[in-house]
Structures are given as C-alpha cells and as structure tokens.
Amino acid sequence: MRNKMLMVQVKAAQFLKRCKDAVLDRRGEGFVDTAVKVLMAVVIGALVLAGLYLLFKDTILPELSDRIQDMFNYDGD
Q: Model's pTM, two decimal places?
C-alpha cells in the first residue's frame, strides 16, 4: 500500500512538473504571430492582384468581360 502511494506521489509530481514547464515555455508560436503572418499574406496578395489588374487591364480583362457577357446573354438560337 505504501509503495502505491509513493508511486502516485511520484506520478503527480512528474505531471505538475510537465504542466509548469508547458506554462513557462516561451518558445512556441502565439496567436499574435499567426495573425500577423495571415495579415501580411492578405496584404501582399491584394497588392499582387492589384498590380496584375493594372498591368493587364487594357488587354486581357475587357476581353474576358466581353466573353462572359456573351456567354450569359444567350438568345437561344
């Protein structure tokens, strides 16, 4: 019986040590870091899309718009 109580105390002490180490650990990545990375990706993506739109506005996008309108304005002939 004494041996089992000693084992329970040892296991509890090991569990508390692991919990304390996990709480005090500062190596991990937090929510703020992830949010900043996502925000940077969205902003950079928007800038790339805006640049592509300005670059190809005169040649590709009006032609694409005309094709889409022709596709949906089908008369049924």
A: 0.42
